[in-house]
Design brief:
mainly alpha, 0% strand
Length: 117
């Protein structure tokens, strides 16, 4: 069985990776939003309604990255608070609870191991 220190180290790595991915989503969302606004402004200036179509499409595409940012933040909260709560448990129970937490956050594979994302 994996030691608690190894699991806590892995949680720290996942938190750092989640933060990096979160910033990528935020930057891409800003670019997508900016593109939509630019198309909308261009449609107003040129008086061509067709230019507003990309704006509608890019605005609709904002749903996915915003949902992903929300999911990443929820996972980060669970991962950040879990070590403090789990340290109060006996070592064998703590390792089991950490594994359950990771499986609930990231899903379990066919053999019950946490899958990489």
């Amino acid at each position: 069985m994996t030691s608690i220190d190894d699991i806590l180290a892995r949680i720290d790595v996942v938190l750092k990776e989640n933060k990096r991915i979160e910033w990528i989503y935020i930057v891409l969302t800003i670019i997508l939003f900016g593109t939509g606004i630019a198309c909308f402004v261009l449609a107003l200036i040129r008086g061509e309604v067709a230019w507003s179509t990309p704006s509608v499409i890019t605005t609709g595409l904002l749903y996915w990255p915003l949902r992903e940012i929300k999911d990443i933040r929820a996972k980060n909260i669970a991962l950040a608070t879990a070590p403090m709560l789990i340290t109060q448990l006996p070592k064998t129970k703590a390792a089991e609870e950490i594994q359950k937490l990771l499986q609930s956050l990231y899903g379990g594979g066919a053999n019950g191991n946490v899958t990489e994302q």
